[in-house]
Write a structure and sequence with these properties.
The protein is an alpha+beta fold. The protein has 2 domains: 4-117, Aminotransferase class 4, branched-chain amino acid transferase, N-terminal domain (D-amino Acid Aminotransferase, Chain A, domain 1, 2-Layer Sandwich), CATH 3.30.470; 124-283, Alpha-Beta Barrel (D-amino Acid Aminotransferase, Chain A, domain 2). It has 8 helices and 15 strands. The strands form 2 sheets. Strands 7, 8, 9, 10, 11, 12, 13, 14 and 15 form a 9-stranded mixed beta sheet that branches. It has a 6-stranded antiparallel beta sheet with strand order 2-1-6-5-3-4. β11 (197-200), α6 and β12 form a beta-alpha-beta unit. The longest helix has 14 residues, at 46-59. The model has no long low-confidence stretch (mean pLDDT 96). The protein binds 3-[O-phosphonopyridoxyl]--amino-benzoic acid (PXG). 3-[O-phosphonopyridoxyl]--amino-benzoic acid binds at residues 35, 158, 184, 187-189, 208, 210-213, 246-249. 3-[O-phosphonopyridoxyl]--amino-benzoic acid (PXG) binds next to α6 and β13.
Length: 288
C-alpha cells in the first residue's frame, strides 16, 4: 500500500515525496526530528514531542515554517489519511535546499516531512526473556559539541555504537560520556534499580530527555518508588538488581545481561515488569 506523506504544506503520494539532493538535511545532517507513537488512534504525548522538536530546532537556529497548532493538525491529517490507529510517526524538519557550502542561512525554506507508518518492534518474547546488551567503546557526543537534548539528524554517534552492539550479536549498546558516566543507549534511556530505588542518569550526562523516560519516572513515583537522577558508572550497571531501557519504540524493556554480567536473576525484575505494565496501560488509555 502506498502511503500519503506530508511534505512541506500538503499530503502527497509516497512516490512524489521527494526532496532535493541539495537539502542540507542530506548534505550535512542539518535538521531535527521526532519519533512518536500512535495508540488507539491517538497521537501519544503529542504536546511533549512538539515542544521538544521546537526546542531542538531553536538550539540549531532552525525556523520551523509553521506554528505548533498547525503542525499538530498536519500530524493528525497524516495519520488519518493513512488509516494508522496503532503505529509510528516520523516527524522531520530539514534545513532545506541550499548549496554545497555549510552556510545554513542560504537555505530559504526548511522542509517539514511527516511519515505515519507501522512500527518495527522488538519481538514480544524479548520482553519476557529480557535483552542482552553491551557497553559501547564509542563515547557519546560531548555536550559542548552536539547536545544530546537536541534530537537532530546527526545520528552517526548512535549508529556507530549500534554497529558495535550488532557486531556482538545484541540489539543495543550503552553509551558512556566523555567522563565515563552512563549517558544512554543508542535509541533509549537507561534505568537501574538497586535496593528498591530507581536511578537514571541526568540529561547533563548526555541523555536525551526521553518522553518515555519522563513518564516512567512519574509512574514510578506514583507507586511510591523513589527515583533519583544521578551519574551512573559501568560498575553501577554491573551490580544493579534490575536494568531496563525506555523509549518510544521499546516502551519499557528489561535487560538481563551486560558485557557478560548477569543482572539480578537473569530475568526482568519485578519493578521493571511493574513499570512496563503501568506504562503499557497508560499508553493505551487504560489507566489515565
Ligand atoms: N535516546 C535517544 C538517543 C533516542 O533517539 C530516546 C533516548 C528515547 O526518547 P523517547 O522520547 O522516545 O522516550 C531516543 C528516542 C527507533 C526509534 O526507531 C528511536 C527513538 C524514537 C523512536 C523510534 O529506534 N529514539
Amino acid at each position: 500500500m502506498s502511503l500519503k506523506i506530508w511534505l512541506s504544506d500538503k499530503l502527497v503520494d509516497e512516490k512524489d515525496a521527494k526532496i532535493s539532493v541539495f537539502d542540507h538535511g542530506l548534505l550535512y545532517g542539518d535538521g531535527v526530528f521526532e519519533g512518536i507513537r500512535i495508540y488507539n488512534g491517538e497521537v501519544f504525548e503529542l504536546k511533549a514531542h512538539i515542544r521538544r522538536l521546537y526546542e531542538s530546532a531553536k538550539a540549531i537556529r532552525l525556523d520551523i515554517p509553521m506554528g505548533k497548532d498547525e503542525l499538530a493538525n498536519a500530524i493528525k491529517k497524516t495519520t488519518e489519511a493513512n488509516n494508522i490507529t496503532d503505529g509510528y510517526i516520523r516527524l522531520i524538519v530539514t534545513r532545506g535546499t541550499g548549496n554545497l557550502g555549510l552556510n545554513p542561512f542560504v537555505c530559504k525554506d526548511s522542509v517539514v516531512i511527516i511519515i505515519a507508518d507501522k512500527i518495527q518492534l522488538y519481538p514480544e518474547e524479548l520482553y519476557e526473556t529480557g535483552m542482552k546488551i553491551v557497553s559501547a567503546a564509542t563515547v557519546r557526543n560531548h555536550p559542548l559539541a552536539i547536545p544530546a537534548q537536541s534530537k537532530n539528524l546527526n545520528y552517526l554517534n548512535n549508529i556507530i555504537a549500534k554497529i558495535e552492539a550488532l557486531d556482538k550479536g545484541v540489539p543495543e549498546a550503552i553509551m558512556y560520556n566523555h567522563q565515563g558516566y552512563v549517558a544512554e543507549a543508542t535509541g533509549d534511556n537507561v534505568f537501574i534499580v538497586r535496593d528498591g530505588i530507581v536511578y537514571t542518569p541526568p540529561a547533563e550526562a548526555g541523555a536525551l530527555e526521553g518522553i518515555t523516560r519522563n513518564l516512567v519516572i512519574k509512574l514510578a513515583k506514583e507507586q511510591g518508588i523513589q527515583v533519583i537522577e544521578k551519574n551512573l558508572t559501568r560498575f553501577d550497571l554491573y551490580v544493579c538488581d534490575e536494568l531496563f531501557l525506555t523509549g518510544t519504540a521499546a516502551e519499557v524493556i528489561g535487560v538481563v545481561e551486560i558485557d557478560g554480567r548477569l543482572i539480578g536473576q537473569g530475568t526482568p525484575g519485578p519493578i521493571t515488569k511493574m513499570l512496563r505494565e503501568k506504562f503499557f496501560n497508560y499508553a493505551r488509555g487504560k489507566s489515565k
